[in-house]
Design goal:
Helix 10 links the parallel strand 11 and strand 12 (394-398). The chain is 25% helix and 16% strand. It is an alpha/beta fold. The strands form four sheets. It has a seven-stranded parallel sheet, with helices on one face. Strands 5-6-4-7 form a four-stranded antiparallel sheet. It has a three-stranded antiparallel sheet with strand order 2-1-3, covered by helices on one side. It has twelve helices and 16 strands. Helix 9 runs parallel beside helix 10 (379-391). The chain has helices spanning 22-31, 77-91, 103-107, 118-121, 124-136, 154-171, 195-200, 288-298, 335-347, 379-391, 414-419, 422-435, and strands at 13-18, 68-73, 110-115, 142-148, 174-181, 186-193, 214-219, 251-255, 269-271, 312-316, 361-364, 394-398, 452-457, 497-500, 510-511, 514-515.
Length: 516
C-alpha cells in the first residue's frame, strides 16, 4: 500500500478512495494484511506506525472527511480479482461471507475501489491545460507528457517507445521526445496530439485516456521567461580579465545561453553545448542566461561587490525559438532529460572526458511552470535528489516566480490603492498574498529534498523607486511579491534560505469590479 502510484505494479494495482479518518483506515488495512510498500515521502501526513489522532484534523490528504487516494499492489491477479469481487458484493448490499476476514470493516472507509483507470490516468490539471492551450492556439496541436509505468524488465522498457509510437499513430499524433532514466525509475514521452484528440481527455474517452501502459497524462513541462524587449541600460563597466583563470571551475549554471563576450562576462564564463547550441539562441535574446551568469559572478551590480575570479561553467538548457519573444526550454524536448544529460556531461562525460570534473555547485533557476508542488515530489525533483546524492553535488534551486494575479481585499479602486500610505499598503498586500497562497506555491523542482531552495527577498541596491511607479513594501526584508512559497516534501520548510532578489514594482487593474 503506497501513497504514490509509481510504486505499484500496473497490472495488479488497485485504487482505494478513502473517505474516513486515515489513521483508522490504516488500522483496518493492517487487519486484512495490507502493508506499506514504502514510508510516505510525498508530503502527506501518513507515517505508518506514527499516525496519531492529530492527523485526523488535517485538511487535504489527511482529512477525516475529504478524499484520499491510496494505491495497493496485490501479490497475484487472483488476489486482485477476489478483492474486487468482495467490494462488488459489499456495495450491492449483500451479506458478507463468513471467511471475509475484516474486509467489510475496511470497506466502510471507502467511497470506491477500482483498478487503475482513465480517472487516475488523466489528472484534472491536464484537462484545464488542454482547454487553455486550445483557447489560446485553436489551430495548433497540443503537447502533453505521458508518464509510463516503469517496468523492472529491460525488455518491457525497451518496447515502451514502440508502444507510444503505435499509440500516437492510432490517434494521428507524434512522439517528439522520449526518455528513460533508470536511476529514478522514470520513463516518459513528449507527444503532440490533434486538438480533437486532446479534447477527448476531458471526457476520459479515447485511446490515450484508456492506454493501459500509460500511468499519467500531464501538461508539457516547460519553462518560459517573461517576454520583454531588450533595453539599453547604462552598464557598470568592470575591467575584463586580461587572461582566463586557469583553475578548473567549481560552479556551474544550467540556464539560458549567455552572451559570452558581454563586457561583464568576457573571460569569465566557459560554455559547454550539450543539447542547446548557439544557433538556437540569437544573441539579442540571450537575456536570462546572461543575467544569471552576471548575478553569480558579480552579484548586484549596484552593490560593487568583487567578482568571483574563477570561471563559471555554463551548460545552456534554454533556447530562443524563431518567432518567439522569450527564451524557453526547447518545445520539442523533455527538460528533465536535458538536465540529466547536462549534469552527466559535467561529471562523467557523454562518450568523452567530463566537461566539469571539479564542479560541486550547480545553479538551477529553471522550473516547470505547469507543475506547482502539491503533494508528491515531481520526477524533476527526484532527479536532482538522485544527482546530488550520486555525485556529491549541491544544487541551488529557485522557488520559481509566481506571476498570478491576486485580489486586493481593502480597496475599491486603483486610485485608492495608489493613494494609500506605504505601510497600510504593505499590510494589505501581504494579507492578500496569504489568502491566495493556494495558487502561489513552489514550482517543481523546488521541492527537491537534497537541493538548497532559495527564495527572493524584496531588496536590492538600485536606489530610490522610479517616479511614477509603486513599490509594494515600505520596509526591506519582506519576501518578494513574486517568489513562490510553501511547504515541501513531508511538510519541510521551503525555501531553506532567502536572498536579495530585486524589488518588484506593482501595477493594479480592475477585473470584474475587483482590484487585482
Amino acid at each position: 500500500m503506497s501513497t504514490r502510484p509509481s510504486e505499484v505494479s500496473p497490472d495488479r494495482a488497485l485504487v482505494f478512495e478513502v473517505i474516513g479518518p486515515v489513521a483508522k483506515f490504516i488500522t483496518a488495512a493492517r487487519q486484512v494484511g495490507l502493508e506499506w510498500l514504502t514510508e510516505a515521502q510525498d508530503g502527506s501526513p501518513f507515517r505508518g506506525e506514527d499516525v496519531d489522532e492529530e492527523d485526523e484534523d488535517v485538511e487535504g490528504d489527511g482529512s477525516a472527511v475529504g478524499e484520499t487516494l491510496l494505491y495497493v499492489t496485490m501479490p497475484t491477479i487472483g488476489g486482485l480479482q477476489r478483492v474486487l469481487a468482495l467490494w462488488n458484493r459489499y456495495i450491492a448490499g449483500r451479506p458478507k461471507p463468513t471467511d471475509d476476514g475484516n474486509w467489510w470493516a475496511l470497506f466502510g472507509y471507502l467511497s470506491d475501489l477500482r483498478t487503475w483507470s482513465a480517472r487516475d490516468r488523466v489528472d484534472p490539471i491536464s484537462q484545464a491545460y488542454v482547454n487553455r492551450m486550445l483557447e489560446r492556439y485553436p489551430d495548433r496541436p497540443v503537447r502533453l507528457e505521458l508518464d509510463l509505468w516503469f517496468r523492472e524488465s529491460s525488455e518491457l522498457r525497451e518496447s515502451a517507445e514502440a508502444y507510444v509510437e503505435a499509440l500516437m499513430d492510432s490517434v494521428g499524433g507524434e512522439v517528439l521526445d522520449f526518455a528513460t532514466i533508470e536511476p529514478i525509475c522514470y520513463q516518459a514521452a513528449l507527444v503532440e496530439l490533434p486538438g480533437n484528440r486532446a479534447r477527448q481527455l476531458g471526457s476520459l474517452r479515447g485511446p490515450l485516456a484508456n492506454a493501459d501502459k500509460v500511468m499519467r497524462v500531464r501538461p508539457q513541462s516547460l519553462y518560459t521567461t517573461d517576454p520583454r524587449n531588450p533595453i539599453d541600460n547604462p552598464i557598470d563597466i568592470r575591467p575584463i580579465p586580461t587572461a582566463v583563470d586557469e583553475r578548473e571551475p567549481v560552479a556551474a549554471l544550467l540556464d539560458g545561453y549567455p552572451v559570452q563576450n558581454h563586457v561583464l562576462l568576457a573571460n569569465r564564463v566557459d560554455i559547454e553545448e550539450v543539447d542547446v547550441t548557439g544557433a538556437m539562441s540569437p544573441v539579442r535574446r540571450r537575456q536570462h542566461g546572461t543575467a544569471m551568469a552576471s548575478l553569480i559572478i558579480h552579484g548586484d551590480l549596484a552593490s560593487e561587490q568583487d567578482p568571483i575570479p574563477r570561471l563559471l561553467k555554463v551548460v545552456p538548457i534554454l533556447a530562443a525559438p524563431q518567432g518567439a519573444n522569450e527564451e524557453c526550454t526547447p518545445p520539442n524536448k523533455l527538460p528533465i532529460l536535458m538536465v540529466y544529460r547536462a549534469v552527466t556531461a559535467l561529471v562523467e562525460g557523454l562518450g568523452g572526458e567530463p566537461l566539469g570534473r571539479r564542479v560541486v555547485v550547480i545553479n538551477h533557476s529553471i522550473c516547470d511552470q505547469e507543475a506547482p508542488f502539491v503533494r508528491g515530489a515531481s520526477p524533476w525533483a527526484k532527479l536532482l535528489d538522485y544527482l546530488a546524492h550520486r555525485y556529491d553535488l549541491l544544487f541551488v534551486v529557485s522557488t520559481g516566480n509566481c506571476n498570478a494575479q491576486f485580489h486586493l481585499d481593502s480597496y475599491e479602486s486603483c486610485e485608492e490603492f495608489e493613494d494609500a500610505a506605504e505601510l497600510e499598503r504593505q499590510v494589505v498586500i501581504l494579507r492578500s498574498i496569504e489568502k491566495a497562497k493556494g495558487t502561489r506555491s513552489l514550482l517543481s523542482p523546488a521541492e527537491s529534498v537534497n537541493a538548497l531552495t532559495v527564495g527572493a527577498v524584496h531588496e536590492d541596491a538600485a536606489g530610490d523607486c522610479p517616479i511614477g511607479h509603486i513599490e509594494p513594501f515600505a520596509a526591506a526584508g519582506v519576501t518578494n511579491i513574486g517568489s513562490g512559497l510553501g511547504l515541501g516534501v513531508n511538510r519541510a520548510i521551503k525555501p531553506e534560505v532567502v536572498e536579495a532578489g530585486g524589488r518588484q514594482l506593482v501595477r493594479t487593474q480592475t477585473i470584474d469590479g475587483v482590484i487585482c
